[in-house]
Write a structure and sequence with these properties.
single chain, about 575 residues, alpha/beta, ABC transporter transmembrane region fold, Rossmann fold, 2 domains, four-stranded antiparallel beta sheet, elongated
Length: about 575
């Protein structure tokens, strides 16, 4: 909780004013039975109408003052709770934005979404309820007990018995509920994850008629969530009836002992009314307090989950590794590099050992799952090599500050991702200071200029979320243009970024890449041999290990894996299959 309290610090004033006014409200409530006692003991028996009306005015004044205090307390509690939630949500988002690929994979996308939304909303409600009611209820309970002794000490023993019993019940159920609410949130993560998968893959699910299977999978996760919710709900539901049973037992004891004492003349009717009124106040406040405890239980469970994300180290450590003189003059150098993803027993890639010269074009090909993307992910340090090392311009990538390294590398990821906005706003991700001329030049090189010119607004044409108003090939070309706008990059990585392009557009794109200004080093990942056969060198991967490295002609002659891929796409003699 230490990490979360600072988010409430800017609202210290609100956090003090809200419970303070709730205490004023509680004080007015505690004085009501005393006023009514005087009315019953002095005004009504004597028939003193003036005193009765005067005391009624006092009660009305208490009511108005209580309403004013309550509204003030609720206003400041809401300000503090909403501000706390907004600040915490912003901090959590900044924390997640700083995560590396590996940290995001480890935390899990679905659970991060749940913690950002449902968990923080629950914490916000918990702060609101805590400021408004957590102090009010104990003050009413203990204040009622103290005032009961001033009314009649001989009957006040009932309060001494009832209040510890109530405290034992409340805190016992609270301690039992905290770990269960944590399990509830974990199950909610699972439900959220399945929902997210289904929304992302809705077209695939329908294409393969898997609606029934996915519905069953969701219902199983939802049923598990429902079971734990019911279990914790049954425990929490014990709070109200048990507390009411104890308090009503106390009321019965008060009425019995009070009746005997009234008949004996040692107590007045007003005393009995005041004591029963105080016991009723305790009952009402404990019902409220029970709701507060349940809400606080949920908030504490959510707080531990949010705090665990805030405790995660952000980014990657920059190591003090001196430059390697033997790699001087190279653009990228792989030194027996390998990568094993967290949780995997076997490495995804291993034994990658070759050097790339500046301005060279390297193609990477292999079957699905052979580790092509894993290899290029080591260059901008999206993942750290678990074996060997990767050097860029003679320096280990782990010695670069992430910003400096990423400025040297332009990446077009395997999945074409565009953001809601305009064509211009998406392209400016590559270089925020790019001119319109530079944007159009990048679009032309990426073979995207023609269809953007046809769009109403040109560079200011709207782009919907994920670029859904563009075709797959258009999205890929816009992503390539975005990478080409980054003129400072001397390494360009195209991760299967032309898979949705027809052969003519793909050929025109490859021709344009060969004449890029500045002659960057280019890594081309593709499933098509036609897309990479003109590369200076081609790396062939099989099950995460290199099985061939050379030109197209050399690999056709000496690499059976490459020749098999080529012949599966082209008939012998070079004719397209």
């Amino acid at each position: 909780m230490k990490k979360l309290l600072p988010f409430l610090k800017p609202y210290t004033k609100e956090s003090i004013i809200s419970p303070l006014f709730k205490l004023f409200e509680a004080g007015f409530d505690l004085l009501v039975p005393i006023v009514v006692k005087r009315m019953m003991d002095e005004g009504i028996p004597a028939g003193d109408r003036a005193q009765i009306w005067r005391l009624c005015g006092v009660l009305a004044l208490f009511a108005l003052a209580g309403i004013a205090c309550s509204l003030t307390a609720q206003y400041f509690a809401a300000r503090a709770a909403v501000g706390f939630g907004a600040g915490l949500r912003s901090a959590l988002f900044r924390q997640i934005q700083g995560f590396s690929y590996e940290q995001t994979d480890k935390a899990g996308t679905s659970t991060l979404i749940t913690r950002m939304t449902a968990d923080i909303n629950q914490m916000q409600t918990g702060v609101n309820m805590t400021l408004r009611l957590l102090l009010r209820s104990p003050i009413i309970v203990f204040g009622a007990m103290i005032l009961a002794f001033t009314v009649n000490a001989s009957c006040a023993w009932v309060f001494v018995v009832v209040i510890p019993l109530l405290a034992a019940v409340v805190f016992g159920i609270m301690l039992a509920g905290i770990p269960l609410y944590r399990r509830v949130q974990q199950n909610l993560d699972r439900v959220t994850s399945i929902t997210r998968e289904n929304l992302n893959g809705v077209r695939v699910i329908r294409a393969f008629r898997k609606e029934r299977e996915e519905t069953d999978r969701f219902e199983q996760a939802n049923a598990a969530h429902n079971r734990i919710q019911n279990h914790v709900g049954r425990i929490s539901a014990l709070l109200n009836p048990v507390t009411m049973l104890i308090v009503n037992g106390g009321l019965i004891a008060l009425l019995l002992s009070g009746a005997v004492r009234v008949e004996g003349g040692s107590m007045t009717t007003g005393d009995v009314f005041a004591l029963t009124n105080y016991m009723s106040q305790i009952l009402v406040e404990l019902v409220k307090f029970a709701d507060v405890i349940i809400t606080v239980n949920k908030a504490l469970a959510c707080a531990s989950r949010v705090e665990s994300v805030l405790d995660m180290p952000v980014g990657m450590e920059v190591l003090d590794i001196p430059a390697d003189p033997s790699a001087a003059g190279s653009a990228v150098c792989f030194r027996d590099a390998g990568l094993t993803y967290a949780g995997n027993a076997a490495p995804s890639v291993s034994g990658i050992d070759f050097t790339v010269r500046p301005g060279e074009t390297v193609g990477i090909i292999g079957s699905t799952g052979s580790g092509k993307t894993s290899v290029v992910n080591l260059i901008p340090r999206f993942y750290d090599a678990t074996e060997g090392a990767v050097l860029v311009n003679g320096r280990d990538v782990r010695s670069y500050p992430p910003g400096e390294l990423r400025d040297r590398v332009a990446v077009v990821p395997q999945k074409a991702v565009l953001f809601r906005g305009t064509v211009r706003s998406n392209l400016l991700w590559g270089n925020g200071n790019a001119t319109d001329e530079e944007l159009w030049q990048a679009l032309e090189l990426a073979q995207a200029k023609d269809f953007i010119q046809q769009k109403p607004g040109g560079l200011d044409a709207p782009v919907s979320q994920n670029g859904r108003n563009f075709s797959g090939g258009q999205r890929q070309r816009l992503c390539i243009a975005r990478a080409l706008v980054r003129s400072s990059a001397d390494i360009l990585i195209l991760d299967d970024s032309s898979s949705a392009l027809d052969y003519a557009t793909d050929a025109a794109l490859r021709a344009a890449l060969r004449h890029l200004p500045g002659k960057p080093t280019v890594f081309l990942i593709s499933q098509r041999t036609a897309s990479i056969q003109h590369a200076d060198r081609i790396l062939v991967l099989e099950e995460g290990r290199p099985v061939g490295l050379g030109s197209h002609a050399e690999l056709l002659e000496g690499c059976p894996v490459y020749r098999e891929i080529y012949e599966s796409q082209f008939r012998k003699g070079g004719e397209s299959a």
